[in-house]
Amino acid sequence: MTAVTLDGYVGSILTANPNMLIPHYLMHSYLYYVMDDPVVSDSMFDTICKRLLVELDGLTHMHKHLVDKSLLVAGSGFNLQFPEMVVGAARYLHYNKKALAHGPRRGRQRTAGP
Cβ(94)–Cβ(4) under 8 Å? Predict the structure, then answer.
């Protein structure tokens, strides 16, 4: 059985809004180092680290001060501080990864009444 990852879901978010590199770096670090259950591939995490290292100075986010450039160079998020907001969002991704990986539900089309 292939593991479910959110690479496509996360990639589309980061393409649309580069400022989301910061919270996604923190969330995925939490999932990997604290929960020991990542929802993105190692390759996607490395991509997040590399992009964040290059783009960090131009980004704006309330948790920017938590990002350590030396950890980004190493491709790591070990020993970071994780605010409750980040922990909650990471747990949401973790517990909903299957639904998020498959995209939005497609319900029945409503048709006009008689």
Answer: no
For the range 103-107, what are the long-range contacts, defined as Cβ-Cβ under 8 Å and sequence gap of 24 or more?
103/9
Q: Provide the residue-wise pLDDT of the chain in tens; the chain has 114 residues.
A: 457 799 999 999 999 999 999 999 999 999 999 999 999 999 999 999 999 999 999 999 999 999 999 999 999 999 999 999 999 999 999 999 989 988 755 444 444 444
Nearest to 71 by CA among 59, 61, 81, 62: 81
CB 35 within 8 A of CB 90: yes
Q: Cβ neighbours of residue 21 under 8 Å, at least 6 residues apart?
A: 14, 48, 51, 52, 55, 56, 59
